[in-house]
Amino acid sequence: MNIFTDISILLLSVSALFSLYTQYQMLQQNSYFLSRYFNWVKDAYVFRLCGDCFLYCILSVLFLTESPITMSIICLFALIFRVILAVFAKKKAIKPLVFTARVKRLYFSAAVIVAALITLCALLYKTKTGEPLLLISFMLTSVTPILAVITKIINSPAEKLIGRHYINDAKRILKSHKSLKIVGITGSYGKTTTKFILNRILSEKFNTLCTPQSFNTPMGVVRTVREHLKPQTEIFICEMGAKKTGDIKEICDIVNPGFGIITSVGEQHLDTFKSVDNVFKTKFELYDAVTANGGVCLANTDSEGISARRDKCEKAVFFGEGTDYYADNIRYSPSGSAFDLHLAGETLTLKTKLLGRHSIADILAASALAHIMGVGADDIKCAVAALSPAEHRLELKPFNNGSLLIDDAYNSNPEGCLEAVRVLGSFEGMKKTVITPGLIELGSREYDCNFALGLEAAKYCDIIILVGKNRSVPMCDAVKTTDFDIANLHVVSSFKEGMDLYLTLCDKNSVVLLENDLPDNYLN
Description:
Distance between the termini: 44 Å
Strand content: 15-25%
CATH topology of the largest domain: UDP-N-acetylmuramoyl-L-alanine:D-glutamate ligase
């Protein structure tokens, strides 16, 4: 094989490994579901994909016309360009690629495939098989989504075996903790905050462990058990997330919960669930598991999705208005919230740094289960007073130029976003700004929910900064139906651009709400 052809393939192969950074980042952010990854390629990568295909065509033509020197020069520029893009993507990314063991295995597979093809090309160059192999090598290293998909498919059987081994090990560990009490928490929204609040309250009396951050997938739960469960742990609090029917049951089959909290059922992930009925069925897989174990499962009747289907969960202990567990007399201030909590006839007057009615609902859910599990009123009161907002969930912080930041970046549900805007509106006498890209994964309801968010923003805000030219259309449409001053409506391409704009407008009398900081695969 010509020395320049060798150099070209080598340069292109190295550049492919850099280009795979974005591909694997998007695979990871899409939970390794190829259908969702393909949607990202179709929506956000289409121009780069055309460029990749164009590069492949040029290289193929140059090879067939025997122009190896020109081919090497183009491959060198492709390498430099892709290295720059990978560095830029890593710096710009809201959620960078996490180099987990799985990602490392994907990279290893990619390197093996490319190396094997190069070796075969070198061995078979003068045969009829050599030229097609060389063209395939060009394709895989030029059009990197193809290489990403191939490595994902090749690795899938091994990933399943590895996952099954970890699951069985986690089951073994849990089974060895004979007296361990396990609490499952799920819901369309509120589950993460409720988990942290419950952990804080129960820790007043028990030795507890909860899944960290947003670890709510089967493997996230398994990792928590294998790495963090100790012999002295008395209660394990397990957040359970879902994007399709059967997801909650899969986690319940691993941990076998004896207690449960279902915070809500609503319009979330409708692109995969298709209907709220399917959401209800999936979330109440926790109810099925807990009641089958003779345990106690709480459900929120203030959630319309639960209240409308109350007859399907008669064994649940309900909390919310009209039950034995409810909150009222709610007041807000820049320092937090105050309210009365009613726990089966016992009334507590509480204060907390947390903001918003949905935060009070989360405190209610956690306090109700803690009360049932034997935590006293004084311990509940002390724990609630000591609560700090969960990271990026209505988290009130000092900000630039003496202004205030309400960081609600991890909130992504319709009701929670509307409530966050209302909380922003409660800061009377201050200049109020919202920065948001809107809501996602709501299927046919996405436009309507974002339109409603736009109306709410126009009602309470002085300045509206929307992220993403395409994503902002429903909110812009809504704002324009009101008497909101359009001069104060801005559309930007990124959160950084939105923040930079805000810094030119804010002062010590300003408050900004950062609402739903979407990962990179949704921003367009």
